[in-house]
Amino acid sequence: MVGRGMIIVGGIFAPVGMILLAVCVALTIDTVQFRASAVSTTGTVVDVRPRTHCSDGRCTTTYHPVITYRTPDGAKIFFTSDSGTNHRPQRGSRVTVLVAKDDPGHGRLDSFTEFWLAPLITGLLGIVFTGVGAVLIITRLRRRSLDAWLNVRGTRITAEISRVEQNRSVRINGVHPWRVIADWADPASGRHYTFTSENLRHNPSDRLAGRRTVEVVIDPADPGRRHRMILEPGGIIG
Description:
This protein has 238 residues and is α+β, with helices and mostly antiparallel strands. 33% of the residues lie in helices and 35% in strands.
């Protein structure tokens, strides 16, 4: 069932998102502590190392400067910056280097990309994954709660099937799910309602062959928003 798939996907996304957020917090703490205790010095770009990354047939090249600086005791240190740019840095240009106070041989280029890109990416991905996972889980749990309430207090009515269609606004594993649309007129008020089934993994047309109506369990106080369509005798949609 699509609903069970929502729980599974949400159960994967949410933990992955929380792990990414934890990584973001750890990287941020490490960065803040390093910058708070580091000593600023001037370095010189002595070389440039290009790195090419290819994805989906497209390749991009970033240029990482090789930087040298001197420690307080006069030692000459070389390191290659982890952060690269799309433009080749000029050899001989001066840059600011942050050096660990307790480890003068550990220097890092003082740039936003060097210190904040990784926390930013992991943080954004963590928010997205956690949010998507939470929404999927909460949505499904609320649906289950409504179904349980309808089972006890809902009213069964018969609606006329108007069509079976694919839900073009949603993709599940790259495929649009199916849904059943049915209409009903409240004999007491004369008001017309259109009911939509939950998303279905497979086309239900074969199961509905020859049928013109379908049972719907409704909340009499709010049938438009609180209802559950029954496609199988004695069961719910799957």
